[in-house]
Amino acid sequence: MIRISVIDGAPAQEFTFDEDMISIGRSRRSTLMLSDQTLSRVHCEIAAVNGRFLLVNHAKTNGTCVNGQPVGEAFLKPGDTLLVGRVALRFEGGGEGGATEKSGGKSVRKKFFGRALRKRMDPMVYAVAYLAGLAASPLLYFVFR
Known about the structure:
26% helix, alpha+beta
């Protein structure tokens, strides 16, 4: 269980989620959908990993801050202040049900980092294609001149 409350930038509300992993963003598919244009569709995710709660930032433009510090990923503790875009949230903690390692038979860590790994593959594909084009360009020059 994950508990979060909105403290600034949106109507003050408290949220309790029974899931071990939640996503925060402006997409309707996000577990916590916030309608703020400074948020990415999937801005960040929070997951229970070995009894602790890990936040991973997915936003490229307006990042995520924990207690005023920009982070890529960070373990959260109750009372931490999160800044996602222009919305300030307070991480209230989690209950006993949220600290499990498995979720639906698939490792939370594997499911959690799968999106980040897929995002890192796209630039690699473009880099390989670019280098292949550079290697083939002298050959193409002599063939088509």
